[in-house]
């Protein structure tokens, strides 16, 4: 076959493997069965035979029936599949990536869509890991929103994987454990596994049917699976460039990280030649950069075959099936070719000769024949136990195939996330933890814009606390409901002695006297809808005395009194500061926990979980809650009331003294200008002077029993009812 003259289906000329690799220093002569020099005319300098005239690795049963020859390309045009220099498909950019360069740079514009860039210096904490988990989940949704999935960090199994049956994606969380430098790697891993959910189901079915139809043993099935896995991984990544070209940069990062990091495991020659060829297949398909000169010399013919079998093997599913079949049959035949010969007969004759020399005079002819038959059976049994050539190769392996499998799957480190961390992430996720930012013009210091949100998740003990508080406050709840639940009641009244309107039958007797004011007019007065927000201070100072208990009891009483009023919407929040997720310090953050609201009706006793925590940055909490309630309310024209329960003194990192008091006052004034009515209820001897510095409307409550009268009075005042 004249390789230089051979034309592919696209009409282009195809060259030898050296040209494809970009190295023409040596050539393999099939006639000499070795690497020799070129005579300057494309012929072997030793025997004169053309280097390209003989190709023993093409037969009717292998790739020649399914695919074309390997194309001639160079380093400027990529590899045979026209992949980029990082050996990924496409590399185009999405609309949000235009105008930026470099993998790391490309991450920032994308993350800005999620509300801010990823920090590279963040400390280890569950809130940060949850945030990243959600970002990764968002990426996977973009890849194909029609294919559902769940995404978790691995903590039980040491690998990245996807479960096609239930749509679960599991990736290595350890790479993000201590910093955010590996976010692009984590993104690539997540996207790769999502691609399996989208594309790989038919491959699993094909693999199962193929193994059954060809009666493959366990070791042959393992060989098939490794081949399928290597090729399928490349196939699914090719599909990414068609719909999400901008995401290819994440695959770039993953390939560079895993294959460059483990290039020695691929490049080093394995003692088993067959397993070494599998190494070559992995490198050829997934990351050809690691195919060095030595490997090309060892496996040039095999590389040439892989190139032919896979030239169009990723074009469509039918071509992929053919490539699987071709390469499996080739590798199986190669394994059999490399397997040691069955030298049972030679071993038998040598053993019998030794026995005859030592014991021939002592044994009869029949005894010697019996020994021969037994030894023949034993030797044959030993050979049979070795099984197929594939089994022999795999049995000689000391985990190499597992290493290949791990590399192909972008395997994770043995250092997995601690179960407690994973548990904390799950708990935080279940609480709907998320973060927002206040405008810098609304905060006292620029680094105090972060707001964290979570929903309370009460345990059995905390639900019992709620039940007990309701029991203790029953009379207060009843009184409070009676005093303030008149809000929203429709009021009807009549004005009589009018000159127009509806005839008033009660004054008809005045007609003979000439009276003309014989009419009445009926009026209905209906209160506007009302959104009520209760905001409870959960700072450490609330642990003093009975402050927290009084505040919790009061909040529960207000909630129980108002919750059934159809004219009211009700939200209950607790606030603290500088402790984002409850486990780790988060300087400058304001942390809000929702205990009641439209989304919390499945947890009616959540307020039993109120407890003292860290600091309090009151102004930020008041603004953040007011903004959130305004956006969530289904009554845009409703009156807005916020009841702030605290011990009266703001205190947080870089937030205290007159500066904090003035900040709270400024926030309150601005919200009141937007239609909010805000009342502070002070506990624990809260200073009237301090409360007056922050609020226009405030009351002091020394214990919850005095709440109904004081609260109803001030509510009627501020709401004008």
CATH hierarchy, class of the domain at 434-481 and 527-719: Alpha Beta
What structural category arises from helix and sheet content? alpha/beta
Q: Output mean pLDDT.
A: 77
Inertia-based shape: elongated
Q: Estimate the strand proportion.
A: 5-15%
The residue fraction in helices comes out at 40-55%
Number of DSSP helical runs: 23
Number of strands: 16
In angstroms, what is the radius of gyration? 39 Å
Q: How would you write the strand order of the largest sheet?
A: 6-7-13-12-11-14-15-16
Uncertain segments of ≥5 residues (pLDDT<50)?
Answer: 1-25, 56-77, 92-124
Main sheet attributes: strand count, strand direction, barrel closure: 8 strands, mixed
Q: What is the H level of CATH, i.e. the homologous superfamily of the domain at 434-481 and 527-719? A: von Willebrand factor, type A domain
Write the CATH architecture name of the domain at 434-481 and 527-719: 3-Layer(aba) Sandwich
Describe, in plain words, how this protein is organized in 3D:
The chain has 23 helices and 16 strands. The protein has 721 residues and is of the alpha/beta class. Among the domains are: 202-340, no CATH class; 344-389; 434-481 and 527-719, 3-Layer(aba) Sandwich (Rossmann fold); 492-525, no CATH class. The strands form four sheets. The protein has an eight-stranded mixed β-sheet with strand order 6-7-13-12-11-14-15-16, sandwiched between helices. A three-stranded mixed β-sheet has the order 3-5-4, covered by helices on one side. A three-stranded antiparallel β-sheet has the order 8-10-9, with no helix packed on it.
């Amino acid at each position: 076959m004249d390789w230089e003259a051979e034309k592919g289906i696209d009409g282009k000329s195809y060259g030898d493997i050296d040209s494809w690799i970009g190295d023409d220093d040596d050539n393999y002569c099939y006639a000499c069965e070795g690497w020799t020099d070129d005579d300057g005319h494309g012929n072997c300098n030793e025997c004169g035979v053309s280097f390209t005239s003989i190709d023993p690795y093409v037969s009717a049963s292998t790739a020649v029936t399914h695919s074309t020859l390997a194309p001639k390309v160079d380093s400027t045009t990529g590899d045979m599949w026209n992949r980029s220099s990082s050996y990924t498909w496409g590399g185009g950019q999405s609309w949000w990536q235009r105008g930026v360069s470099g993998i790391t740079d490309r991450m920032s514009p994308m993350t800005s869509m999620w509300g801010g860039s990823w920090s590279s210096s963040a400390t280890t904490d569950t809130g940060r890991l949850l945030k990243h988990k959600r970002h990764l989940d968002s990426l996977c949704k973009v890849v194909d929103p029609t294919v559902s999935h769940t995404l978790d960090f691995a903590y039980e199994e040491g690998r990245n994987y996807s479960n096609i049956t239930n749509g679960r994606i599991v990736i290595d969380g350890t790479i993000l454990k201590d910093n955010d430098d590996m976010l692009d790697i984590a993104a690539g891993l997540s996207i790769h596994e999502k691609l399996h959910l989208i594309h790989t189901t038919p491959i699993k079915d094909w693999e199962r049917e193929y193994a059954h139809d060809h009666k493959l043993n366990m070791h042959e099935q393992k060989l098939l699976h490794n081949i399928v896995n290597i090729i399928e991984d490349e196939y699914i990544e090719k599909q990414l460039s068609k719909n999400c070209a901008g995401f290819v940069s994440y695959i770039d990062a993953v390939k560079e990280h895993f294959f460059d990091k483990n290039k020695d495991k691929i490049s080093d020659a394995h003692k088993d030649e067959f397993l070494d060829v599998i190494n070559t297949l992995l490198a050829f398909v997934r990351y050809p950069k690691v195919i060095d000169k030595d490997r090309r010399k060892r496996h040039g013919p095999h590389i040439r075959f892989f190139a032919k079998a896979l030239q169009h093997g990723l074009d469509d599913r039918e071509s992929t099936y053919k490539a699987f079949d071709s390469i499996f049959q080739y590798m199986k035949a190669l394994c059999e070719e490399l397997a040691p010969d069955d030298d049972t007969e030679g071993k038998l004759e040598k053993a019998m000769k030794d026995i005859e020399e030592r014991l021939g005079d002592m044994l009869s002819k029949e005894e010697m024949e019996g020994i021969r038959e037994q030894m023949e059976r034993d030797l044959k049994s030993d050979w049979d136990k070795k099984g197929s050539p594939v089994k022999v190769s795999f049995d000689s392996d000391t985990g190499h195939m597992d290493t290949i499998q791990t590399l192909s799957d972008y395997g994770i480190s043995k250092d997995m996330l601690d179960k407690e961390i994973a548990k904390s992430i799950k708990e935080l996720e279940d609480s709907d933890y998320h973060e927002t930012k206040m405008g810098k013009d609304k905060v006292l210091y620029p680094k105090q814009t972060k707001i964290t949100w979570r929903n309370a998740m009460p345990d059995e003990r905390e639900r019992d606390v709620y039940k007990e508080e309701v029991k203790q406050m029953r009379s207060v709840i009843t009184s409070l409901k009676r005093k303030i639940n008149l809000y929203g009641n429709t009021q009807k009244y009549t004005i009589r002695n009018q000159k127009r309107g509806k005839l008033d039958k009660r004054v008809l007797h005045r007609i003979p006297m000439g009276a003309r004011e014989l009419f009445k007019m009926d009026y209905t007065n209906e209160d506007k809808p009302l959104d009520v927000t209760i905001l409870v201070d959960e700072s450490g100072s609330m642990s003093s005395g009975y402050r927290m208990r009084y505040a919790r009891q009061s909040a529960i009483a207000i909630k129980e009194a108002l919750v059934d009023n159809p004219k009211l919407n009700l939200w209950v929040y607790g606030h603290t500061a500088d402790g984002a997720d409850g486990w780790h310090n988060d300087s400058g953050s304001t942390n809000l926990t929702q205990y009641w609201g439209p989304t919390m009706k499945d947890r009616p006793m959540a307020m039993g979980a109120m407890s003292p925590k860290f600091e309090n940055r009151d102004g930020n909490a008041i603004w953040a809650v007011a903004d959130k309630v305004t956006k969530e309310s289904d009554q845009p024209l409703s009156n807005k009331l916020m009841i702030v329960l605290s011990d009266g003194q703001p205190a947080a990192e870089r937030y205290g003294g007159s500066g904090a008091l003035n900040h709270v006052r400024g926030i309150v004034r601005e919200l009141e200008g937007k239609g909010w009515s805000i009342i502070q209820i002070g506990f624990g001897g809260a200073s009237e002077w301090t409360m007056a510095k922050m609020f226009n409307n405030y009351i002091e409550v020394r214990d919850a029993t005095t709440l109904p009268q004081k609260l109803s009075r001030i509510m009627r005042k501020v709401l004008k009812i």
